[in-house]
Amino acid sequence: MTIKNAGLIFAGSLSKREKTTAIILHHAAAQRCSVQEVHSWHLSNGWKGIGYHFFVRKDGSVWQGRPIDRLGAHAKDANSYSIGVCFEGDFTREAMPAAQLAAGQELVSYIKRKYPGISKILKHKDVCATTCPGDKFPFSKIASGKASGASAAAGTVKADSNCTVYAHPTVSASRAATMKAGTSYPYTSVYVGGDKVKWYLVRVGNASGWVSENALHGCPYAEPRVTVYKGCPRGDNVKWAQWHLVHAGYDIGKSGIDDRFGPATDAAVERFQRAKKLQVDGRVGPATRKALKEAVR
Questions:
Q1: CA-wise closest residue to 281 among 266, 261, 297, 296
Q2: Selection from 58, 148, 140, 66 nearest residue 102 by Cα
Q3: Of the candidates 173, 186, 176, 98, the residue with the CA atom closest to the CA atom of residue 142
Q4: 198-204 and 207-212: which strand pairing?
Q5: Do both 102 and 196 map to the same domain?
Q6: Do residues 284 and 225 make contact, with C-beta atoms less than 8 angstroms apart?
Q7: What is the per-residue pLDDT across 182-233, written as a single tens digit (0 to 9) for each?
Q8: Do 202 and 103 belong to one domain?
């Protein structure tokens, strides 16, 4: 998995941990914060720096805190034998995003593989008088170390055309890498979203990230730069619109993707626009193109 390094500077040397038999899970008790901010808070406490070994953000990114083999400062009387993992958020009052949950599961699996002697995964409140990590924290799912929505998997997937790999499986995800058309890539787990679409955690070069099963078989036609409408010139602009309509589940007639914007394609565009609460005019302009891309992503 990809673990990001923020280049944190500690106030003094960190002692090596002598044994590792547990992982302790925490929340930051702050709805928005970064690993750098937590590091700053802990320095202000007079500590050598961030007490956790890993910090998992809501966008699914995983950040290095203290070096994994060093003594932590996250759970009094339990630091000598544990690795501390903190999650951005306040899970006394909010639910964990799917991307963060998936990243937490993968991280737990990674740590357990690195330290086979780990026998316990604990909540902070199991060892200290605290409410951390909160009643809404999905402890059992993260502690399982399995990909959310499916059991752990392994195999390869191939992209039909160039497609983007994202840092986490959500619509607003940040880009992590690009898969090349016709190339096979290994995946380590599968996440099934609420819309039943499968997302594969793939490795592309030195990066890893999520790609949906829809994107793997992406549109081979370039996105139009002009509005496409009934009776417009035939060509790939029309095919782009037709391909997206078909993959969004809209019938464009028996002729299928034929580069002719005829009555069946026009009717499909209007049905799509009506369903997405767009202006119903049968014209595939910027707003409709954006909605079509989101529908098949």
A1: 266
A2: 148
A3: 98
A4: antiparallel
A5: no
A6: no
A7: 888 888 777 766 556 678 888 888 888 888 877 787 776 778 999 999 999 9
A8: no
